[in-house]
Specification:
The strands form two sheets. The protein has a three-stranded antiparallel sheet. Strands 1-2 form a two-stranded antiparallel sheet. It starts with a strand and ends with a strand. The longest helix is centred in the N-terminal third of the chain and has 45 residues. Helix 3 runs antiparallel to helix 4. By secondary structure, it is mainly alpha-helical. It has one domain. About 55% of the residues lie in helices and about 10% in strands.
Length: about 250
Amino acid sequence: MDDVEVFEAAGTAVTADVGDEEPGPASTLAQGDAALLSRRDDLIRPVVANLTRRLKRSLQDDQNDLLDRLRSSGSRQEVDSDSLPDEQEHLARYAGVTRDHLIEAARVGMALAGAEADMAAAESAGDAAADELAVALVAPLRRRLEPGDDQAGEDGQLQVERVGAAFREWKGSRVEALAADHVVAAFSRAVVAVAPPGQRLRWVADDDGGACADCDDNALGGAVAAGDEFPTGHRHPPVHPGCRCLLAPVSP
């Protein structure tokens, strides 16, 4: 049997002996995983909250800027290539405002993994998550803003209403879910990045929001070398929107 060293959770190092058999729900390992997930949630909660607030402010600024452009066009009020910012500029804007928050998520991942702070690795993990978040937000937002064939030539008031509706979709719970997904991604990337040579990681499934077959497959697949693929082909969480799994180191 291997001795699994779980991150320090709730101030106590949690360990358990595991073999090939699946541990029962009342096992020490299951209890340790629950404590680990809870500790992780406590640490990332303020990061998610701060990132969500920052995104909402940026979305409001984006909306105001677009409405100003529409109003300045007078009777030719229409969302087009002239009123929307350049796509690369748009992506860079959202990546830029989220970067520091996602670097902080990466640093939290390193700390919870018991690794020494590595700013270069934290920045790399945060930058990658920020770029992915920008694409996940900007691409669908621009599609929603650009008029379809049936909306071509609509009057100014309808344009304004459609812009407002597009941004409202993002400024609710949708943006908080997006923020949480990418905080988990930055956190998880950092755990992989700072793993020492030969370190194996196991997948800890979080089924609190509902069971996921892919996540459970990764958890049941056993430990893999840091950076290697789990059964689903993923190297770290999240596997899907809303995935809140994490990686835990396994002793040699």
